[in-house]
Amino acid sequence: MKIQWYPGHIAKAERQLKDQLKLVDVILEVRDARIPLSTYHPKMPEWIGDKGRVLVINRQDMIPPDLITMWRDWFRQRGESVYFANAQSGQGISNIIKAAQKAGEGMNKKRTDRGMLTRPVRAVVIGFPNVGKSALINRLLKKRVAESARKAGVTKSLRWFRMSETIELLDAPGVIPNRMTDQEDAIKLAICEDIGQASYDFQEIAIEFIELLQYLTATSDGLVTCKTLIDRYGLDPEKFTGVDYITELAKLIDQANTQRTARRIIDDFRKGLLGKIPLELPPL
User: Fold this and answer.
1) For the chain, what are the domain ranges?
2) Mean pLDDT of 136-147
3) What is the CATH number of domain 8-171?
4) Which of 26, 31, 45, 189 is the most buried (most CB within 10 A)?
5) How do beta strands 26-32 and 159-162 pair?
C-alpha cells in the first residue's frame, strides 16, 4: 500500500497561506493527540520564522490522561510549551487564549521597540486536515463561524475573523506535505482520518491498525491494550495476524464481508467507541 494525498484545494491554499503569513504575528499550530508526531508538518519552522507560536494538541479526550502527562514532559524536555485541548467540549481553550494573547503582546513589544505603533495581533491556525482547527476557532471566537466536521478537507479557503479588539484570527485549510515520504506516518494519518479517504483502502488500513495495536500493547507498559477490541467484538486480536483477525471477525459479525468489517473497526476507533487509544507514544 502506497498512500499519497495532495488535492488541488490544499495546494492552492498553501500558496495563499504563504502570502498571508507575511501579515501574521502568531501561529497556533494544531496537532492530533493520537498522533502528535505524525501531524507535525516539516515546513512549520519555515512558516513560524520569528513569529510567536502556540502549540495545541487537540483531541485530548481520545488518549489516556497518563499519556497527556508523558507528552507534556517530553515536549518540556525539548524546550517546548504545549497546550492540550478538546475543542469539541471547550476543555483547555482558556489557556490557549491566554497563550495567544501573551505571544501577541511579545510581537507588539517588538513593534514598539522599533518605534512602530501597536495594532491588533494577527494569528493563524495551521495544522493537518481534520485535527480540529475549525472547532478550535469556533471555541476561540465563542460562536460557530467555521464549518466543522469529522472528516478531512472541510475548510477549503482562507478567512479572517475578529477574535477580540486585540486579536484577529485566520482560518486556513488543512496543510499536508506534497509528498508523504514516511509511509508509517501516512498510515496513522489515514487511520485517524487526517487525510482524505480517496488515498487509502479501508481493509488495508484496518489490518495496519490491528497490527499497530498489537505492537503498542506489547511495548507500552499497559498504556495501550487490545482488551477494548475483545470487549466490543468478542475476539482477541493477539491470537491472529492483522489479516486473519479481519477475516475471522467478519465471519462473526458481518457475514464474512471483510471490507464492511474493516470500515466498522476504523469508524469505531475514530468515534472513540474502542476507548482511549493512542497510536503514538513519546520516543524514549
Assistant:
1) 8-171, 201-270
2) 83
3) 3.40.50.300
4) 189
5) unpaired
